[in-house]
Amino acid sequence: MDERTKTAAGIAAGLQGVKYDDRRLAEIAAEVEVLNDAVRKAAAAHLTFDDDPAAFASIMTKEARS
To answer: Which of 18, 23, 56, 66 is most buried (CB neighbours < 10 A)?
Structure first.
């Protein structure tokens, strides 16, 4: 089990109280990686470190609609 899958397993068990088999955990880890990359790219294109934190939600809403 790679680190991403271990992280997904820890979150599922520790925060959600559920357990998945190794195959599903690997799928979840891959899905989260894709989503995380999309969020980071969208934020980086529109936000700077000093922006108001509320701007993040606004940008994510706009990006989800496009």
So the answer is: 56
The full length of the chain comes to 66
Cβ count within 10 A of residue 20: 16
CB atoms within 10 A of CB 64: 9
Q: Would you state the structure tokens that stand for residue 7, as one six-digit string?
A: 């992280």
**pTM, full prediction:** 0.70
Please tell me the predicted confidence (pLDDT) of residue 15. 93
Question: What distance in Å separates the CA atoms of residue 4 and residue 58, rounded to the nearest whole number?
Answer: 28
Query: Where do we find the tokens 């108001």?
Result: 52
3-state SS, residue 1: coil
Which amino acid is present at 47?
L
CB 42 within 8 A of CB 63: yes
Residue 53, CA distances (Å) to 4, 60, 61 in order = 27, 12, 14
